[in-house]
């Protein structure tokens, strides 16, 4: 099946309130353009350098999402154009994004990454760390970032019950965040969870944004 057909099949199965991020890391621009021509305008990359190169060469109405782990020293390379940063997992990183956004006269939307998986390798905050960030003076003074929700990755397992439990846990933290007093830099509306293998389950558990790569572009070489 073509990239276009894969994309249309997935889009037709998504509820209206769910945003599709086409995970295009490692894929050539010709593949991305095929998806773009089929109506996809949100792409997710996990390496800032690769994303910046694609941004330079592709249409400017594309929204670029940084879905990988972000090193603070690389933020400056995407601050000019990135639409949403999914994996913010420390106050230090948030401060750097705020600083670089200010230099570019922008407000950059971010998702705080919550650690829900049983694997130790996944990045993310626990609930206590989330609260520490939200209640810190430093966060409240940031004018150039906006926390628009949460992101999380389930354990890489075939055990659907475990994945479901982790997604439900993330949704409950999101529900808590929604009740948090709103400020100019806190407007939670996005829950980014679910990838090619588990996005349908994620949507049932309340996801509003799914990150799908291999089901659109085929497996990685």
Strand ordering within the main sheet: 1-2-3-4-5-6-7-8
- In what range is the share of β-strand residues? 15-25%
CATH fold label: TIM Barrel
- Could you give the distance between the termini? 17 Å
Write up what this structure looks like:
The protein has nine helices and eight strands. The chain is of the alpha/beta class and 221 residues long. The chain has a single domain, classed as TIM Barrel (Alpha-Beta Barrel), CATH 3.20.20.10. It has an eight-stranded parallel β-barrel. The longest helix has 20 residues, at 160-179. The mean pLDDT is 95.
Structure keywords:
221 residues; alpha/beta; TIM Barrel; 9 helices
Task: Quickly describe the structure.
The protein is 39% helix and 20% strand. The protein is an alpha/beta fold.
Topology:
Blueprint: H1 3-13, E1 19-23, H2 29-37, E2 42-45, H3 48-57, E3 63-66, E4 84-88, H4 91-103, E5 108-113, H5 127-135, H6 137-140, E6 145-151, H7 160-179, E7 186-195, H8 199-204, E8 209-212, H9 214-217
Parallel strand pairs: 1-2, 1-8, 2-3, 3-4, 4-5, 5-6, 6-7, 7-8
């Amino acid at each position: 099946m073509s990239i276009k057909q894969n994309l249309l099949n997935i889009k037709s199965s998504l509820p209206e309130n769910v945003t599709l991020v086409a995970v295009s890391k490692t894929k050539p621009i010709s593949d991305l353009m095929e998806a773009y021509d089929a109506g996809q305008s949100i792409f997710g990359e996990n390496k800032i350098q690769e994303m910046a190169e694609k941004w330079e060469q592709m249409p400017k109405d594309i929204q670029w999402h940084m879905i990988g782990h972000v090193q603070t020293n690389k933020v400056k390379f995407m601050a000019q154009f990135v639409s949403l940063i999914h994996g913010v997992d420390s106050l230090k990183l948030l401060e750097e994004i705020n600083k670089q956004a200010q230099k570019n006269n922008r407000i950059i939307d971010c998702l705080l990454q919550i650690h829900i998986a049983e694997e130790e390798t996944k990045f993310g905050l626990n609930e206590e760390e989330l609260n520490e960030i939200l209640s810190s003076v430093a966060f409240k003074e940031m004018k150039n970032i906006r926390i628009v929700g949460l992101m999380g990755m389930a354990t890489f397992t075939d055990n659907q019950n475990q994945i479901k439990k982790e997604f439900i846990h993330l949704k409950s933290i999101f529900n808590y965040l929604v009740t948090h007093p709103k400020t100019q830099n806190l407007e939670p509306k996005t829950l980014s969870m679910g990838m090619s293998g588990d996005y349908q389950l994620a949507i049932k558990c309340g996801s509003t944004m799914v990150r799908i790569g291999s089901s659109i572009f085929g497996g990685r070489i």
